[in-house]
Amino acid sequence: KENNSIFVDDLKEEGEKRPVPNPCRTFLDAFERYPEIMENIERVGFVKPTPIQSQAWPVLLSGEDLIAIAQTGTGKTLAYLLPGFIHMDGQPVPRAEQGGPGMLVLTPTRELALQIEMECKKYRYKSYKSLCIYGGGDRRGQINFVKGGVDIVIATPGRLNDLQMNDLISLSSITYLVLDEADRMLDMGFEPQIKKILLDIRPDRQNVMTSATWPTGVRRLASSYLKNPMMVYVGSLDL
Length: 239
Ligand code: ADP
Ligand code: MG
What we know:
Organism: Larimichthys crocea (Large yellow croaker)
Largest sheet: 8 strands, mixed
Bound molecules: adenosine-5'-diphosphate, magnesium ion
Protein name: RNA helicase
Oligomer: single chain
Helix content: 40-55%
Family: Belongs to the DEAD box helicase family.
């Protein structure tokens, strides 16, 4: 396996393997039907999708779960955010009537949460409101923001679990879940909080997991919580 190569695999354990969707070679391939997203990509000036994006978008837009394994800086944030916007838009009950967030991104640190929120704002879609929830942040402010209505929550597991245990946030409307940098979240000891958070999220959600590495702990998390995921990995990994 060569460096910088991209591999896609169907991790489904039973039955016939699904065909791997063709990668998109341009932004238009993936988002032709979403002019608002195309405009934002053009405004930012990106030339073409990164390898992980070109393979992740068709999988996620088809509604399948995804594991994306690639090093830092390979564009994983947009790989899951843009399909997440479209997912929320396509829900049978209109966003405004759901009374709670539709997308949750769990990420290991406050810095990452803030970076992801900046990307969210840059590609602002349908005026969806995003909120960062992290330890050390203004807890009361976070609670008030949740009450005012939020579409996208980007959170570290510890503080989100704290709000959840105190009935200060409802997770029942979430249908798109991202476990970002799963390997780091496990290294930081967040597994118990992640498990408690996932208990309150409906099982028929769509899941995305990203990681730079693919150790046993991450595999276990994936097989417990993802549903027949496709896996995309970039670079050479011992699999
Ligand atoms: P990762 O999560 O894989 O570490 P990020 O999503 O943070 O990577 O992306 C790293 C940087 O690359 C960000 O500044 C992001 O805006 C930029 N980026 C994302 N997609 C593209 C693209 N298609 N072309 C050029 N730059 C991109
Ligand atoms: Mg990232």
